[in-house]
Structure formats: structure tokens, C-alpha cells
Amino acid sequence: MKKITLFLFLLSISFSFGQVVLDENFDAGLSTPTGWSNTDLAAGGVWTFETGGEAPFFGAANDVLYSAAGFSGIYAMFNSDAYGNDSAPENAALISPAFDCSALTVIKLTFNHLILTEYGGEGYVEVYNGTSWVQVAVYDETTVPAPDYFTLGAVTIDVSAELAGVTNAQVRFRWVGDWSYYWTLDNVMVQQPTGSAPNPVTTPTPADGAVDVFVDPTNGDYLVAFDWSPATTGDAATSYDVYLGDAANNLNLLGNTPNDMVNITGMDYSTEYFWQIVAKNLAGEAVGSSTWSFTTEEDPLLSVDTNTLELFSVYPNPVNTNVTIKTTLNINAVEIINQLGQRVLLVNEANIVNNTINVSTLSNGIYFMNISAEGKKQTIKIVKE
User: Fold this and answer.
1) For residue 187, which of 20, 48, 27, 10 has the smallest C-alpha distance?
2) Which of 52-56, 59-63, 234-238, 365-369 tops mean pLDDT?
3) Residue 148 has pLDDT above 50, yes or no
4) Cα 148 to Cα 98, 112, 152, 312, distances in angstroms
5) 45-102, pLDDT tens digit by residue?
6) Do 365 and 59 meet the contact criterion of CB atoms below 8 Å apart?
7) Which of 109, 201, 354, 374 has the CA that lies 20 to 30 A from 189?
8) Element (H, E) at 139
């Protein structure tokens, strides 16, 4: 099965606020916000404050932090790669001012982030319970595994057990690494929500039991469009968890979106899928959400002359450094697209030597190679290791 990925949805969340005790969007300036501490615990570097929305290693001039991670304006970043190979291990904590939870009973911590954990980078979310720091989330190569090593978007953590009744509560985001990648952060909030959890969504598309569902292979993404209707009863949902799998009892969480539609890439032809949408808000998640199924169409290229399909092949695949294209045609250009649909590499004819492309700068993962030669085009999936 191809690697399944949610495709370019906005991950910021607009909540119906309850009693808010901490609210920080970092937009006051390009420095540590008033009341916060930016503490270097190992002489390896501190958090910085950035703008522009570009996520390192996601392709030139991208705006992934704004368009996919839900950031806006200024945001915090610990850029381990930028500190270089200085033999100085990093342990840096961005610490909030104290806030009072003595009147709160149900407490939710929310934030938006993007973290790339490969090469030993680790992110820890910790709260101060009046006596000590308690870990409530960790992002490392175990919890954010290969091949992507990154996670992004909106996060909600229930910290009621740790902070209810605490008068001097705090939250901190602690990066640990050494010439690793980075962690970015925005929209930190702690609050007691109001209202109740939403009711389940209805009216799925693809419909339950649908067959011959269209798979769009544009740019090699192989995507299926999904949508659903929010419940018309109960409190409104602020976001939706999207689950997909090969059996009703084997669903995987792909991500979270505030929209009632999403494109999912990496779909296979002639395959039965099972999916579920779980509506959420700060008060909780819908109970009794249905699981639906559908079957995708057959590959339309199966009826095409095999000579047309074999214009190009690539090797090795998986690839580590150089990938070579086998063809009798003169290659004009090669474009490589990641699973977010973003161009990460473009090589023109003048820079293609012996039909070989160097992909060593790409992060490990799945990519789609668009090959153009003498008016012919073909997309081939490659795996970078």
C-alpha cells in the first residue's frame, strides 16, 4: 500500500473559549515574550522567534508553517541544524509565566507545532504542578517514527490531573538534540473549556459501501476527496480526527483538520478502505462515530499498451544518494514532489548527467518523480532512505 497522507489542509483551530489562564501567540516581537523564560540548560543554544512561515527541509520558499501547521505571524523555533556541528548538546526550555488554575477542574493545553525529530531531536511538553515538572507529551524518533520523522498541526492535551487546583502552574517546551533538525511552536493556550462534546458527523463522501471511487493521480499524488456533514444537534465541533485503514478494526489516525473535507494522498487502485471521522472540541470528542467503507476504481492505465507504460524506469529504488533513469529518450526535466504536493527538487536537461539525479539532500520518505522527455511524461514513486 502507498504511504497515506492528509493533503494540504489548514490545521489551526478556532475554539469557543472558556476560562483562559494562558494565551500566547508570540506576535509581540522577535524576542522572548514578556514573562516567559528562554533557558539554555546545556550551553547548546536557545529558542529564537521567526516569521515568514518557511519550514526548513520542506523545499525552497515554502509556507508550510502557515499553510499546513496553522501558524500565523511570529512563532518560536529551536533550530538545531542552524547551530551546526558544534559538539554542544542542546537542552533548551521555553517556559511560560506562572498562571492560576486554582478555580479550574477541567484544563486543556493547546498549541500548534511542527517538529522534525530525525538525528536524535526530541521535544518534551512539560507542566509545573506546583512542586515539580511533569511530562505530558514527548516527540522523538519512537513517537514520530520513520520514514517522515515529522508531525505538525494542532495539539490538545488534557492536563487536568496535573494542574487542577494549582495556583502557580506553568508550561514549558523543552528541546533536546545535537545538530539535529528543529521544533517550531505557536498559539499556546491553557483554558477550561465550556459546553459539551459534539455529536457524530453524518453524510460521508465517499458514501458507505461506494465502489469505483475516483482516484486522482495528478502530480503522482493518487488522492481521494473526502467530505462529511457536521452534526446539526449539540455543541459545534472545532476539529475532526481523520482515521483510515484496511479493516474496520484496523484504523490509523492520519491527522486532525478544522475543515469538513480533506484530500488524502497515496491511495491505491482496486482497494477497499475503511474510514472514520471523529468530531472534537475542547470539551471532548463525539461518541459513537460510524466507520464507513468504499472501494477505489481500477487503474485506468491497465488497458494502455504496455510499451507506453515502460518508457521510463528508475534504479535503485529505494535510493540513498543517486537515482538513475533508464530510458531511450532524451530527458528534458525531472521534478520531484513530496507527499504534501510541494516541489522539492527540479533538475533541467543541462544539469542531468548520464540520466542520474542526486537526491542526497532530500529527507527520508516517499516522493513522486515527474519525468519529461521528448514530449512524453511519466510519474514514478521513489523511496529515499
Assistant:
1) 27
2) 52-56
3) yes
4) 35, 18, 11, 27
5) 999 999 999 999 988 889 999 988 889 999 999 999 999 998 899 999 999 999 999 9
6) no
7) 201
8) strand 133-139
Cα four-point dihedral sign 59, 63, 69, 71: positive
How many Å separate Cα 268 from the centre of its chain?
21
Task: Identify whether the C-beta of residue 51 lies closer than 8 Å to the C-beta of residue 30.
Answer: yes
C-alpha cell at 168: 502557580
Residues 5 and 21: their CA atoms lie apart, in Å, by: 35
- C-alpha distances out from residue 101 to 10, 17, 36, 133, Å: 31, 15, 18, 16
Buried b (16+ CB within 10 A) or exposed e, 46-82: bbebbeebebbbbbeebebbbbbbbbbebbbbbbbbe
Within the chain, residue ranges assigned H as helices are: 64-67, 80-83, 160-163, 306-309
- Classify the phi-psi angles of 130: left when phi > 0, otherwise alpha if psi is within -120 to 50, otherwise beta: left
pTM above 0.70, yes or no: no
CA distance to 304, 311, 347, per residue, from 216 (Å): 17, 21, 25
Residue burial 338-348, b: 16+ Cβ < 10 Å; e: rest:
bbbbbebbebe
Instruction: Read off the amino acid at residue 269.
Output: Y
Sheet bearing 90-95, strands edge to edge: 37-40, 90-95, 170-177, 122-128, 133-139
Whole-angstrom Cα distance, residue 200 to residue 176?
A: 39
280 in Cβ contact with 25 (< 8 Å): no
Place of cell 526548513: 56
pLDDT class for 1, splitting at 50, 70, 90? Answer: very low
pLDDT in tens, 317-336: 999 999 999 888 888 889 88
